[in-house]
From TrEMBL:
CDD domains, A to Z: SAV4209_like (cd03453)
Organism: Cupriavidus necator (Alcaligenes eutrophus)
One annotated Gene Ontology cellular component of this protein: fatty acid synthase complex
Pfam families the UniProt entry points to: MaoC_dehydratas
Biological process, per Gene Ontology: fatty acid biosynthetic process
The MaoC-like domain, residue ranges: 21-93
Residue ranges the record marks as coiled coil: none
One Gene Ontology molecular-function label: fatty acid synthase activity
Name the record gives this protein: Dehydratase
PANTHER family found in the cross-reference section: (3R)-HYDROXYACYL-ACP DEHYDRATASE SUBUNIT HADB (PTHR43841:SF3), 3-HYDROXYACYL-THIOESTER DEHYDRATASE HTDX-RELATED (PTHR43841)
Length: 139
C-alpha cells in the first residue's frame, strides 16, 4: 500500500485499504434508517428465513458506500470524478468488509490529470462482494 500525494501515484500502485468492523444488526438497522431502505430482507431475521436465507444480509448500497469511503479517505470527496460498481455477492451479517483499490491508468482529461482506479470490497474470507472502477482527479 502506497501513501502520499495523489500526484505520486502511477499505474500498478495500491491505494490505502479500508478495513471495516464486522457488519452487525445494529449497523443494518442504522443504515436502513439513514437510507430509507427498510426492506425486511435486511433487518428481519424471520422474514429472511421465510425467504429461504439463513439470516439477514447487508444492503448492497451499504457496501457501495464503503467503497466510496475508501476513495474519499484517500483522495478527498472533491477529487472523485466518477464511481461505478457491480454487485457480485451478498455481504452477510458478521462479515468484515475490506475495501481495496489499485491504480490502473494515469491520463489527462479536460485539462486535469486523472487516475483510473479498480476498486473492490471483499469479506474476511477474501470473497469479493463488489467490484468497480473510479476516476480521481490529481491536484
Amino acid at each position: 500500500m502506497k501513501k502520499g500525494k495523489l500526484n505520486d501515484f502511477k499505474a500498478g500502485d495500491s491505494i490505502p485499504s479500508l478495513q471495516l468492523a464486522p457488519i452487525s444488526r445494529t449497523t443494518l438497522a442504522l443504515y436502513a434508517g439513514a437510507s430509507g431502505d427498510h426492506n425486511p430482507i435486511h433487518i428481519d431475521s424471520d422474514f429472511a428465513r421465510s425467504a429461504g436465507l439463513d439470516d439477514v444480509f447487508a444492503h448492497g448500497m451499504l457496501s457501495a458506500a464503503y467503497v466510496g469511503r475508501l476513495l474519499t479517505d484517500w483522495a478527498g470527496q472533491e477529487q472523485v470524478r466518477s464511481l461505478s460498481v457491480r454487485f457480485t455477492g451478498i455481504t452477510h451479517v458478521h462479515d468484515a468488509p475490506l475495501c481495496t483499490g489499485r491504480v490502473v491508468e494515469r491520463f489527462a482529461h479536460e485539462g486535469e490529470t486523472h487516475l483510473r482506479v479498480d476498486v473492490q470490497c471483499a469479506n474476511q474470507q477474501g470473497e469479493i462482494k463488489i467490484t468497480g472502477q473510479a476516476v480521481v482527479a490529481v491536484v
